[in-house]
Structure formats: C-alpha cells, structure tokens
DNA sequence: TGCATAAACGGAGGCTGCCTCCGCTTGGCG
DNA sequence: CGCCAAGCGGAGGCAGCCTCCGTTTATGCA
C-alpha cells in the first residue's frame, strides 16, 4: 500500500533519475540502518530457504523487532522486491566495473557467466527475467529495464570495439538467456548453462 | 513415520501394468472413499488458491478429519502429486477418446488445446512439463512418460493417416509446448498460447 | 448371523509463523 | 538542551502444520 519507502538509493548527484520520486524526507539514521540490515539478512535467508523463509526469523537475525520489519515491508512481496532490486543493481554495477577492467567482449562474457551464477542460487531472478518480455507489468518494469540496459551497454561497447558481430542485438541475447533458464534444473544445470553461454559468445565473436 | 499407507504410490518397478495397483491388500472401502474425496477436494482447492491452500480446509471440505488427510498423504507434496497424477491420467485418457471421435490431425489439435487449458489453470502442470526433459528425476518420471506417450500416439496416428508431415517428431512438439509455457503469463496468455498451438498445427499439416 | 480385530478415523493439543496494535525510545531540529 | 514525531519492538490473537492416541468400523471367519 503506502510504498513511501520507495526513496531508497536516492542518489544525490543523480541526474535524470529512472522515475523514482525525489525523497520527500531523508530517512532517520536508525531507520535506514535497520532497513539495510533487513534487506541483507533477507537476501541470505531467501537464498538459503526460498522466498517462504520465516519473516520472524529474518527480523531476529537482523536484530530488529518483527514490528520494524512489517513497517518497512508491509508484505512479504515488498521485502522480496527490495532484495531483488538490490541484487539487480549490484549485477548492473558489475557490468560497468567489468567494462573498465577487461576488453569489451571478455566483459560481456564474464557478465553473462555472473548472471548465470546469480540465477543459479536465486530462483527469483528467473521469474524476474520472464517478466522482462511482458511489457512493463507494473512495478517491476524499471528493474527489467535496468538489466537490459546493462546488457546493452556491454554489447554496444563490444560492437564499437569490433569484437563481436553486429547483426545480433540485445533482444537476441536476452532471448537466449531466457531459453537457457527454461531448461530443466538438474544437478548439472550450472555447468550446462555456462556451456551455453560459452556457445553464444563463440557465436557472437565468430564473424566479428 | 510408519508410512505403510504408501501402497498407493510406492512406485517400485512393478509389472508393467498401467495402473500402479500393488498386490498387497485391497484398501478398505471407507479408506478408498476418503482418499478419493481428498484428491477431488484438493484438486479444486489447489486450482483456486494455489498449492499452498490450507490442508485443514481441504480436510474439512472433504468431510474427513485432518488426521485422515495426513495418514493418506504424509506431506503436502504427496497430495499434490496425487492430484497431479490424476489430472495427467485424465488428460491422457482424453487423447484416446479424441482419437476415436475425430480425424487424427484434428484429435491432435484438440488435445493440444486441451493441454493449454489444463496448464492455464493448474500452474503445477507447467513445472511438471519442465521435468519431462530432466531424465526421470525420481518419482515423477512415469507421469512424464505418460504425457509423451499420449502425444506420441496422437502423432503416430496422424502420420499413418498421412495427415501431418513426418520429419518432425514428438520431441519437437514437446519442445514447442515448453517454449509456449516459458512465455510470460499475462492476461492474454491463453489466447496467445492457443494461437501458437494453431501455428504449430498449421506447420505440421502444411506438407502432409 | 455374530464376533474379534486390525484398519481406519478424527480431533485435541503443542508448536510455529503471520500480522496488528500501541506504549516506549530516540534521533534530529530549533 | 529539550521537545516530539518518527521509529522501535514485542505481546497477543489467529491460523495453519503435524502428531498422538482413544474411538469407531469394515471385514474375514466361524
């Protein structure tokens, strides 16, 4: 309901923000601290026990009362979304870091691998990916855009450096990722997915 | 713990009979009746509220005690599996009925449409489909085989009648079904899926 | 037909998790 | 430094999970 807590990650020098409203009020220091602790703890708990992990346990481990958890995140979905959003942001930040430290094609490759690893442990991301194609279905649309934005930056850089072919675009790679996720999840899921990513990369580089 | 009531789904390699009827002992009449009522009620409840519907509510609606539910189905998964197995059996039975009442290609088309409708309401089936490709991962393998068996019967009949091309097989159609399911689930999911099924059928008939 | 008995029933009870409500604490401003 | 709203936290009510065990009943046998 009252998703006023939306003002998280209010970048001070951020120009042309991605739609988040300007912070009506800076959060009190203790509130921000508790919020951070909750998101971090919840991330670990969801990864370990799935998204139905006990909220009371999360609050306890984060060192706050259950009431505090519910004030920050009125529903379980709100908490899941916050965790999800944070992870996506980290993933996107990694794209820029990789670009700075490696040749663009290598950066793309490493990022795709990292994407697989994220998805391997956080099943939620997979569902999220599926949403990317469903045109902006509400609140998650900006997150989806963030992912394809990162991917696009990587691909454009690799293209401009002449390291990958230019007749395949962001959508094609996204599509491939979705297909990889659709594969059955067995014990060798990760290896198989990484191999497929390798295959895609080889294909992309092959007529550079 | 003393799950001796397991005789319904013990699933060891019994003789290749269609129904897994263990030779142990015929169930007492009231036990069988309650079991049936539970499966039927659970099917409705899962369809309405998802697989996390209240088990106590299911028991109440089925007119049995909660203890009875737990004796028949020690875990929630056992109940889900029983419902799932029943629905798959109905679906497969429909294949033969359709074959008897329609030309083989039309039967195949109708069955695929019916499959979509099943999957539309029972999200569990979708997960099940995904398991088909994961080679016999335990207890669900025979169910998976049942589905592809039905599909294969339909396709073979249509082929022998010269109604569909012969260069595409069961696996290809199964693969297409999986892809259709992988699509994002919006409000128009059903229509879109049915259109895709139509597309597949047109393709199958086009060079008969 | 009647009886013995194993099979099946059912719900009370203990436990855990969900979520709300409200009195107490404290960060931050004037 | 003192005020006070923003923020905290946990008690409590409710619902669902699952077990345990006393009671009921279907069925095989005489």
The most extensive interface between chains reads: A-B, 12 and 12 residues
Radius of gyration of chain A: 19 Å
What percent of the residues of chain A sit in helical stretches (DSSP H or I)? 55-70%
Order of helical and strand elements of chain A? HHHHHHHHH
The biggest beta sheet of chain A is recorded as: none
Low-confidence stretches of chain A: 1-22
**Envelope shape of chain A:** elongated
Q: Given the structure, what is the number of helices of chain A?
A: 9
Mean pLDDT, all residues of chain A: 81
Distance between the termini of chain A: 50 Å
Q: SS-based structural class of chain A?
A: mainly alpha
Assembly form of the protein: homodimer
Number of strands of chain A: 0
What does this molecule look like?
The structure is a homodimer of 208-residue chains. Chain A is 68% helix and 0% strand. With 208 residues, chain A is mainly alpha-helical. Chain A is elongated and about 60 Å long. The N terminus of chain A is likely disordered. Chains A and B meet through helix 6 and helix 8 of A and helix 6 and helix 8 of B. Chain A binds a DNA duplex (30 and 30 nucleotides) through helix 1, helix 2 and helix 3.
């Amino acid at each position: 309901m009252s998703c006023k807590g939306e003002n998280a990650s209010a970048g001070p020098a951020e120009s042309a923000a991605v739609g988040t409203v300007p912070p009506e009020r800076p959060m009190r220091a203790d509130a921000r601290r508790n919020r951070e602790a909750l998101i971090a703890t919840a991330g670990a708990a969801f990864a370990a026990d799935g998204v139905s992990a006990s909220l009371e346990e999360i609050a306890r481990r984060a060192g706050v009362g259950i009431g505090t958890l519910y004030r920050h995140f009125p529903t379980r979905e709100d908490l899941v979304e916050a965790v999800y959003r944070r992870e996506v942001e980290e993933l996107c930040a990694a794209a820029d870091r990789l670009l700075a430290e490696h040749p663009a094609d290598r950066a793309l490759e490493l990022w795709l691998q990292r994407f697989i690893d994220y998805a391997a442990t956080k099943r939620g991301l997979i569902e999220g990916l599926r949403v990317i194609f469903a045109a902006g279905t509400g609140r998650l649309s900006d997150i989806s855009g963030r992912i394809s934005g990162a991917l696009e930056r990587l691909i454009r850089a690799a293209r401009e450096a002449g390291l990958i072919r230019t007749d395949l675009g962001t959508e094609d790679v996204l599509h491939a990722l979705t297909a990889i996720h659709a594969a059955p999840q067995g014990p060798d899921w990760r290896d198989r997915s990484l191999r497929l990513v390798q295959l895609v990369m080889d294909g992309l580089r092959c007529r550079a």
